[in-house]
């Protein structure tokens, strides 16, 4: 988890102020123990590009593995809760809320994940993990119908994964 609060002297950390390394260049977890708790929220989004026939099959609940979006929602929430296990320098934070929202277009599905916490560090990495895992679950659920004759995925792609917003409110 990145330490997104200003350094102790009140100045914003610059490119030369790497918070995840020691003076000797060793990797370290940021010490957030003395930081006050604050309410934090982050929203991330991304999309998976699919064949139009696959999107239609998802809409009609005709994918053999089951309900694609319900399964992806569960995967996204699980990923949010386990981000600290997947990203080496992330802190384990108390997740107070996770919202997932899917938008379906003709040739793609977009997923937005909103994460809330009250703690000492932000939750944008959790939101990003939720998005990427949720979209990976969609891919896994539809891969049989997305493959071409040679077993490749020429039309499938996860794209535009990004943080849309990040908020911090001191308590």
TrEMBL record:
Pathway(s): Cofactor biosynthesis; molybdopterin biosynthesis
Enzyme class at the top of the EC tree: lyase
GO terms for biological process, alphabetical: Mo-molybdopterin cofactor biosynthetic process
Listed HAMAP family: MoaC_A
The species this protein was found in: Natrialba asiatica (strain ATCC 700177 / DSM 12278 / JCM 9576 / FERM P-10747 / NBRC 102637 / 172P1)
The keyword Lyase is assigned to this record: yes
Pfam family membership, one: MoaC
Family: Belongs to the MoaC family.
The Molybdopterin cofactor biosynthesis C (MoaC) domain, residue ranges: 29-168
Keyword Protein biosynthesis included in the entry's annotation: no
Molecular function per GO: cyclic pyranopterin monophosphate synthase activity
Protein name per the record: Probable cyclic pyranopterin monophosphate synthase
Origin: domain of life: Archaea
InterPro entries: Mo_CF_biosynth-C_arc (IPR023047), MoaC (IPR023045), MoaC_sf (IPR036522), MoCo_biosynth_MoaA/MoaC (IPR050105), Mopterin_CF_biosynth-C_dom (IPR002820)
Enzyme Commission designation: 4.6.1.17
Catalytic activity line of the entry: (8S)-3',8-cyclo-7,8-dihydroguanosine 5'-triphosphate = cyclic pyranopterin phosphate + diphosphate
Oligomeric and partner information: Homohexamer; trimer of dimers.
UniProt-annotated binding residues for substrate: 89-91, 125-126
């Amino acid at each position: 988890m990145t330490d997104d609060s200003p350094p102790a002297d009140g100045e914003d950390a610059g490119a030369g102020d790497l918070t995840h390394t020691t003076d000797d260049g060793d990797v370290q977890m940021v010490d957030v123990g003395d930081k006050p708790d604050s309410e934090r929220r982050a929203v991330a989004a991304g999309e998976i590009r699919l064949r139009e026939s696959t999107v239609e099959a998802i809409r009609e609940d005709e994918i053999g593995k089951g309900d694609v979006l319900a399964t992806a929602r569960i995967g996204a929430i699980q990923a949010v809760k386990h981000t600290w296990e997947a990203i080496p320098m992330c802190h384990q934070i108390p997740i107070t809320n996770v919202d997932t929202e899917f938008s379906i277009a003709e040739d793609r599905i977009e997923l937005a994940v909103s994460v809330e916490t009250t703690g000492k560090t932000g939750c944008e990495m959790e939101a990003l993990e939720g998005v990427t895992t949720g979209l990976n679950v969609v891919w896994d659920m539809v891969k049989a119908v997305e493959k071409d004759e040679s077993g490749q995925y020429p039309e499938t792609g996860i794209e535009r994964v990004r943080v849309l917003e990040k908020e911090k409110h001191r308590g």
